[in-house]
Design brief:
Layout lengths: L14 E8 L4 E18 L6 E2 L12 E8 L7 H12 L4 E3 L2 E3 L4 E3 L16 H10 L24 E8 L5 E8 L49 E8 L3 H18 L11 E10 L7 H22 L16
Helix pairs in contact: 1-2, 3-4
């Protein structure tokens, strides 16, 4: 398989990503946006999701496209990041024209990072401003690890983080993923330094350790708490309907299960958005969606491992990073 030029979700032409974080509170926000509205869908498999405006992403709903997607820390407080993004987009004149009003559509999902060692004694939620800052930072290149929505993320053994990856399908379409990894489970095979996602690694993108040499014999390590949730976006330039995006989001959850063990638990809110810029027609309407689903799952598995791999240490961490400086 071949990655895109940057091995990021922004290899899908037209997409931009912005990150903002507050290292004092150990939390942050990530925004995916584009110059033009894009088709979007969602699929939830975790038992404890926190979301905004996801009902309208069902294929039978009137709205088929969105202006931006938001991933945020902060649990329920983090949903306020989408309000900041929506207001900033409106000020830029971006959104859907409804009578004499402009209404940006900004679905969002959050993860729980309120007990990660950061100072959460705010009087007013910081996420509105973090959302606006992230939107202003949106560009084609962005940092991985302890940034944006992955700033305060953790897994059972190591710090989580913000990850991304891309791949080119046989039809020439680009697929990318971005994820904030904050799982109840682990990205690492018990008793080893090998990633569960190792079979899908490309060009040593998360250390080139390869698969674990022997099958695991121990039960996977977990936080065994409600302080979790892995949230992701998969995107493509293939021209997909909202129903086809929903199917791609569903398939992408396979990647989450490959990279995090266990995943989709009652105490995770595991969620995947899917987005299409609709730039390139399908060459084979029967075969291409199959490849797109596989690509989305592969990219998400790799992005999860990269998010953990690139995490960096910070004061008051509750778990160490995978790599020490």
């Amino acid at each position: 398989m071949q990655t895109g030029p940057q091995n990021l979700i922004t290899d899908v032409t037209g997409l931009r990503v912005g990150n903002a974080q507050d290292d004092h509170i150990k939390s942050g926000t990530t925004v995916l946006t584009a110059d033009d509205p894009f088709t979007a869908a969602v699929h939830v498999m975790g038992g404890a999701p926190g979301t905004r405006e996801t009902d309208l992403l069902a294929p039978d709903k009137t709205v088929q496209q969105v202006t931006a997607l938001v991933l945020s820390g902060g649990s329920a407080f983090g949903l306020d990041a989408a309000s900041g993004v929506a207001d900033a987009l409106r000020a830029q004149g971006k959104g859907f024209q409804v009578a004499d009003q402009i209404v940006p559509i900004v679905p969002a999902a959050i993860l729980f990072d309120l007990t990660n060692g950061g100072d959460k004694s705010w009087d007013r939620s910081p996420y509105y401003e973090l959302g606006q800052q992230a939107l202003l930072q949106a560009k084609s290149d962005f940092s991985l690890g302890t940034h944006g929505a992955g700033t305060g993320a953790t897994t059972a053994s190591f710090k989580g983080g913000l990850g991304s990856a891309s791949v080119i399908t046989p039809s020439g379409h680009t697929v990318g993923a971005i994820v904030a990894v904050n799982a109840l489970g682990d990205a690492i095979v018990p008793g080893t330094n090998h990633f569960w996602a190792a079979p899908w690694e490309i060009n040593g993108e998360f250390g080139n350790h390869g698969p674990a040499p022997t099958p695991p014999t121990d039960w996977p390590k977990t936080k065994f708490s409600s302080q979790n949730t892995t949230i992701a976006i998969v995107a493509t330039d293939a021209d997909l309907t909202q129903a086809q995006c929903t199917r791609m989001a569903t398939a992408a959850h396979d990647g989450m299960a490959r990279a995090l063990v266990p995943s989709h638990t009652p105490m995770d809110g595991d969620l995947v958005f899917a987005a299409s810029t609709n730039a390139k027609p399908l060459k084979d309407p029967a075969l291409d969606p199959i490849h797109l689903g596989h690509a989305a799952a592969t990219c998400l598995a790799r992005a999860i491992a990269r998010g953990v791999y690139h995490a960096s240490p910070a004061p008051n961490d509750t778990v160490p990073p995978y790599r020490l400086p």
